Amino acid sequence: MLAQQLHWARTEERDLEDLEVEQEVLTGLDLSRLEYTRVRFHKCRFERCDFSKAAFYEAVFDGCDFSNCNFLDSLWNKCRVTGCKGDGGKWIGSRWKDCVVEDSSFRYGNFSKSLWSRSRLIGCDLREAAMTEARVTGMEPHRTSFQGVDFFRTSLKGVDLSDCQIQGITVSESLQELRGMRINPGQAVDLIPLLGVQML
Description:
The chain has 200 residues and is mainly beta.
């Protein structure tokens, strides 16, 4: 169904609106440079698909697997992503505004130069992901794992990570990325290795 809709959209130079896409397995599709408005993807699997420069408005991804797919420079506005798997995905330059991402995995994903505005991450797994040179001051993370995440040149000022996991994060030698971030007292121990201090 989606493949047919995509063909129609390309032929008619139209975008996709008000669609329900359920339990489809899609391989190698070019889904780039299209707008998806109020499109709901339910338990779909995307393999080697290209969503680069796509724009999602009020879209929903529920129980989907889009691991290793390309979302370069994609736009997300008032979207909801729940129970999804996006491990190894390329999210470089993606922009997130008024979104909710919940109970989803993005291990080893590349979110470098991404922009987050009034968007929540709840119960997500971003272990070993890259978030270099990103703007995350509008990110609201809760119960999310950032273990081993690379935050090089990403200011965490004002970001509340007090109920998240931050062991092994990477920052610059100056530690400037950590200034103004919010953590709980117990998490201070996780940051000690960045100072080159050994605890006995």
